Amino acid sequence: MNHPLNCDLFCHVVDNFGDIGVAWRLARQLAHEHGCVVRLFVDDLNTFAAICPQIQPRMGQQTVNSVNILPWSRQQQLDPGDIVVEMFGCHLLPGFVERVQRVGARRVRWVNLEHLSAEDWVEGTHLRVSPQPGGIDKLFFFPGFTAGSGGLLREADLLARRAAWERLPNARRIALRSLGLPPPPEHASTVLLFSYARNGIAPWLQAMAAASRPTTLWICPGPMRAEVDAWLSMQLSTGQSTVRGSLTLCALPFVPQERFDELLWSADVCVVRGEDSFVRAQWAARPMVWHAYPQHDQAHLEKIDAFLRRYLEQAQAPVRDAVVALSEAWNQGGELVPAWQQFVSRLPQIRAHAQAWCERLAQLPDLASQLLAAVAAQPDRQPAGAARASAAAADGLK
Ligand code: TRH
């Protein structure tokens, strides 16, 4: 193929930052590493602007990092590209769906990129197709942690960038200073806190304050700030730090997504959530606690079990026990202090395990490459760009 592939990504922001966080990473990677012409349609540019400050929410169309960003409604006026990706099963507008169906399977590939899960059923469902009206198939693409899944988003240079960062003298200090944050006290353990709401963290904070070793807690914007404020009996404003015994608490600003990795790399323990920060903490190779997105039917508990089974498959028993205990306590509202103390006492082994896990995961092809390979493997396709070019040429001959 001698023309760049036109990729249309569609993101409906359900809540928080993960929907747009994943879509934005994928969009940039398709543009930068695969030379695709990417259009990203988003229904909430304000949320997008939180993770990418270059975004101007009122603009009708803008290009940031070589990605063409369009408001959701613009799909009404545009023809589909070669690949149409619905992020997380979002529903396209009927007019656009009709155009996808009209140009048909010879010219467009329609993909539904699903949520991440480590559950066994993923391998059986990944790359299934569902026939749609108009003779076009929709391809179901499932990210995951195994060779039979669609893999995880990982930029080609990510691990090399982290390794180079880690070799820099004072990398953490420099990163924090450039984010306007004070460096942690010498010898302090650092904990990055980016989780959903969780009651009952006061004993955990108290235990860190009473510990002999200093800890610095970086609290990301979000519901945990109120929990921390309640314990402090004061409102910690963004950028502000305060000290209670051995514990320094610092309220972080929301950083651009491109800087988020540095926060993870700067931490000794990462409390992460959802999908994207969860995956980035694994590429950071840091000990982590995953606060899974809570679901009414408790389906997230199965997701956690499935992940921990894979994550800990090759772990030594002390590491496994510590990780499982803290995960259960965090996700199921149990007592945090004993689980935390067990976890912290095994931190060097857990860190070595996180590094080994990261290296194992990196053996698998990344999600963006797999997505393009899956689309290319679909039979009988004629890229829309080429079709548009030949239609234009034909028009010229008339
Ligand atoms: O924000 P999340 O909870 O997002 C999602 C959504 O809720 C989604 O609907 C749900 O399906 C999914 O979770 C499971 O958590 P996540 O996925 O970690 O996304 C957070 C994004 O925000 C990630 O891309 C990192 C980014 N981020 C920054 O860019 N700067 C920051 O300072 C922080 C704290 C996060």
Which whole number gives the mean pLDDT? 93
In the sheet with the most strands, the strands line up as 3-4-2-1-5-6-8-7
Q: Note the main sheet.
A: 8 strands, mixed
How many strand elements? 14
Question: How many angstroms separate the termini?
Answer: 26 Å
By CATH's scheme, which homologous superfamily of the largest domain applies?
Glycogen Phosphorylase B
Q: What is the percentage of strand-forming residues?
A: 15-25%
Overall CATH class of the largest domain: Alpha Beta
Q: Helix count?
A: 16
Q: Helix amount, in percent?
A: 40-55%
CATH topology of the largest domain: Rossmann fold
CATH architecture of the largest domain: 3-Layer(aba) Sandwich
List the helices and strands and how they pair.
Blueprint: E1 6-11, H1 18-34, E2 37-42, H2 45-51, E3 62-64, E4 67-71, E5 83-87, H3 94-103, E6 109-113, H4 121-125, E7 129-132, E8 136-141, H5 158-167, H6 171-178, E9 189-193, H7 202-210, E10 215-219, H8 224-232, E11 241-244, E12 247-251, H9 257-266, E13 269-273, H10 276-284, E14 288-291, H11 299-311, H12 317-332, H13 336-345, H14 347-361, H15 367-376, H16 384-397
Parallel strand pairs: 1-2, 1-5, 2-4, 5-6, 6-8, 9-10, 9-13, 10-12, 13-14
Antiparallel strand pairs: 3-4, 7-8, 11-12
The chain binds 2'-deoxy-thymidine-beta-L-rhamnose (TRH).
Quick overview:
With 398 residues, this protein is an alpha/beta fold. The chain is 43% helix and 17% strand.
